[in-house]
Specification:
Blueprint (H helix, E strand, L loop, with lengths): L12 E6 L6 H14 L3 E4 L4 H4 L9 H12 L3 E5 L7 H6 L26 H18 L5 E5 L14 H14 L4 H8 L26 H29 L5 E2 L1 E2 L10 H4 L7 E3 L9 H16 L3 E5 L18 H11 L2 E6 L25 H15 L12 E4 L2 H7 L11 H15 L3 E4 L11 E4 L7 H12 L3 E5 L21 H4 L1 E6 L8 E5 L6 E3 L3 E5 L3 E6 L8 E8 L2 E6 L2 E2 L1 H15 L11 E7 L3 E8 L5 E9 L4 E9 L4 E7 L1
Parallel strand pairs: 1-2, 1-9, 2-3, 3-4, 4-5, 6-7, 7-8, 8-9, 10-11, 10-12, 12-13, 13-20
Antiparallel strand pairs: 14-17, 15-16, 15-18, 16-21, 18-19, 19-20, 22-23, 23-26, 24-25, 24-26
Helix pairs in contact: 5-8, 6-8, 10-11, 10-14, 11-12, 14-17
Bound molecules: alpha-D-galactopyranose (GLA).
């Protein structure tokens, strides 16, 4: 939260989505009393309240929201006031049925849920900006309002609309991208193949359902367009809010989640005063704590410092096949892990569990059972924990390692008709992230073309299928100047239009890596290849292999069997003053950890702190002190060397701190 518009509430903000419209007003007094008991300092209000705020077009009723905001203020609770634009009312769609989105198959969707509108609809944009302005004008000076919450999770349910209005907007976007040069678009999309050449801009439509594989660059540009189209709605609302209240920071809740990839958040991040994230655990993820850490580090990197956890859950969600409750202590570990990775605010969906409606089976801070419940006791405990950590606010993590993260590369890798349909961008990145996380090594995320990479000792690019020549040169420069770089398989293969760099893979990185690949050999599901060399005995690889020839690099490991037996699988190349490693396959987790350990040692990267296995270690660095977070995910408890004060218990520490089983310790380490 490093921008000029700062959140003016102290410490680590604590709260959740507050939807009191669901309850009779008598309940509200109990809500605020219990919020105070739990130490809640800020709640998000009004997120889905459009239908109640604007009962008919242009006619407003702010009386209920007035009372809610006044009540919050009387109780010393700040409001993160939302524009309600994620859910237009039924009257809107009856008046403007063309604003309903159309899916890939040409079906127009109906209202009756939420976020069902066409992002390019002029009627929607007009209506959204009008209610945003009415809200901003009315509440800009309300003493409860500490932050604006623009919309809700842009693109969660309507990342793409395929209607004719969207088609026209897409064409406008393309004319800007290709500077009105249709031949340039044809070249970029490779439309000489399969008779796809366009003679008129009006021939271009969204990538609607087709009988065979659609044009890949068409799809790539479509994804870029969809992200930009929603961003333009967000910035338009932001501008309305800023005009009314120049000092109040504006945020929108992003979703840096395994399951969501619609928006290029590198483009979104600079547009927001404060970056917020929503993070939910997947029931089938046995190590969801790694996902929390990864998303937290990515958020911190997008924000360039602390960020805000706008939503997570106290217990089960209601949108998976089976919705797992959290284990004892898990909610506290989750929340404090977000803080460890840079969150300066912790909030939940939602304050009070709904009795009715689409999310009646979603956990909340105050469950159906009321205050005589484990969740409520945990919520109160967490409030106390966050108060004890107030001074952590504003501190941040500093890392010697950067992982390259890129939405373009992610979209391109997962297009259809690729060498393997088994590659999942986020899994590939997480595979490399996990061993560093286990070792307690701090990590930032960077764009491939990020300037100033020299501040890192080690840069990792686990998956960079698509890369621009400029970004490839940026990574090469980092190595030439003495950095250590490691690149994962099938990277540097295509340019920003998805065109293959010719002359052998990994085209953009051939010289840097000192290798050339003439043919790809992706492995079938379940198939493995043995590895030998500087790898543990019995090492294997799956998912991917390719026939690599050395053109300057040395072999670190080769295939021990299969069609590529004897060919290099992992290589290392001196380039300029540095070293570039190529992991041309997908080694098993132990082997990958061993290899990354070698890479890390060569780069001179050490863990943040010594801690036993099973303990997550993160250090936030402040101006006067550092804060060492130790989180026990193994459930056994542990001791770790530390000196200072353990903040959660207020205990002075000399020499050793105890982390209780399944618990957390946060040590203030004086400088
Ligand atoms: C999203 C939404 C919330 C709620 C939660 C449930 O994050 O923003 O309104 O639906 O999911 O997990």
């Amino acid at each position: 939260m490093s921008t000029a518009r700062r959140l003016r509430i102290p410490g680590i903000a604590y709260g959740g989505d507050y939807n009191p419209e669901q309850w009779p007003e008598e309940t509200w007094a109990e809500d605020t009393r219990l919020m105070r008991e739990a130490g809640v300092t800020m709640v998000s209000v009004g997120i889905f309240s459009w239908a109640l705020l604007e009962p008919s077009e242009g006619e407003y009723d702010f009386s209920r929201l007035d009372r809610i905001l006044d009540l919050l203020h009387e109780n010393g609770i700040a409001a993160d006031l939302a524009t309600p634009t994620a859910c237009p009312p039924a009257w809107f769609f009856r008046a403007y049925p063309e604003a309903l989105p159309v899916d890939r198959d040409g079906r127009r969707l109906s209202y009756g849920s939420r976020q069902t509108f066409c992002p390019s609809s002029p009627a929607y944009r007009r209506a959204a900006l009008r209610i945003a302005k009415a809200l901003a004008d009315r509440y800009a000076a309300h003493p409860a309002v500490a932050m604006w919450h623009i919309h809700n999770e842009y693109g969660c349910h309507n990342a793409a609309c395929y209607c004719d209005t969207s088609a026209a907007a897409f064409r406008t976007w393309l004319r800007t991208r290709y500077e009105d040069d249709l031949d340039a678009l044809n070249r970029a999309w490779g439309t000489t193949f399969w008779s796809q050449w366009y003679y008129d801009w009006d021939e271009i439509i969204p990538p609607r359902a087709t009988g065979a594989v659609p044009n890949p660059t068409h799809q790539l540009d479509w994804r870029r367009f969809c992200s930009d189209e929603l961003l333009s709605l967000c910035t338009a609302e932001r501008d309305v809010l800023h005009r009314a209240a120049p000092d109040i920071p504006a945020t929108t809740n992003l979703m840096v989640l395994r399951t969501f990839d619609a928006l290029d958040y590198w483009r979104w991040a600079p547009e927001l005063d404060i970056l917020s994230n929503d993070h939910y655990l997947m029931s089938d993820d046995p190590e969801a704590e790694i996902d929390i850490a990864l998303s937290g580090d990515l958020m911190r990197s997008l924000a360039g410092g602390p960020w805000f956890l706008m939503e997570h859950s106290t217990g089960a969600v209601n949108w998976q096949q089976v919705n797992r409750a959290k284990r004892p202590g898990e909610m506290r570990r989750n929340a404090l892990a977000h803080v460890a990775h840079g969150a300066d605010g912790i909030a939940f969906f939602q304050w009070r569990a709904s009795k009715a409606g689409a999310e009646q089976w979603h956990s909340a801070m105050l469950p159906h059972a009321g205050t005589d419940s484990q969740i409520w006791r945990d919520v109160v405990q967490l409030g106390a924990d966050l108060r004890a950590l107030a001074e952590v606010r504003g501190s941040s993590v500093s890392a010697d390692v950067a992982i390259v993260w890129d939405w373009d590369a992610r979209w391109a890798l997962e297009l259809p008709a690729q060498p393997s349909g088994e590659l999942r961008y986020q899994d590939l990145v997480r595979d490399w992230y996990a061993p560093l996380w286990r070792a307690g090594v701090a990590v930032d995320f960077v764009r491939p073309g990020e300037p100033g990479l020299d501040r890192y000792k080690l840069v990792l690019a686990p998956s960079l299928y698509l890369v621009t020549e400029a970004a490839a040169a940026n990574l090469a420069r980092f190595t030439e100047r003495g950095g250590t770089l490691a690149i994962g398989f099938h990277s540097g293969v295509v340019d920003e239009n998805g065109h293959v760099f010719l002359g052998g893979y990994p085209g953009a990185f051939r010289d840097l890596l000192g290798v050339v690949t003439d043919e790809l050999f992706p492995l079938l599901p379940g198939e493995t290849a043995g590895l030998s060399g500087e790898v543990p005995t019995g090492a294997t690889a799956d998912l991917w292999s390719e026939r690599v020839r050395l053109t300057g690099a040395q072999t670190v490991a080769s295939y021990a069997d299969g069609p590529l037996a004897g060919h290099p699988a992992v290589t290392r190349h001196h380039h300029g003053d540095g070293t570039a490693w190529y992991l041309a396959t997908h080694p098993d987790q132990d082997t990958l950890a061993t290899l990354l350990h070698h890479v890390r040692r060569e780069a001179g990267v050490t863990p943040e702190h010594e801690a036993p296995a099973g303990i997550e270690v993160v250090r936030r660095r402040g101006t006067e002190a550092d804060y060492l977070f130790l989180i026990d995910h193994a459930g056994k408890g542990a001791e770790a060397p530390a000196d200072g004060v353990e903040l959660l218990t207020g205990t002075p520490i000399t020499g050793t701190v105890t982390i209780p089983p399944g618990g957390v310790a946060v040590v203030r380490e004086p400088r």
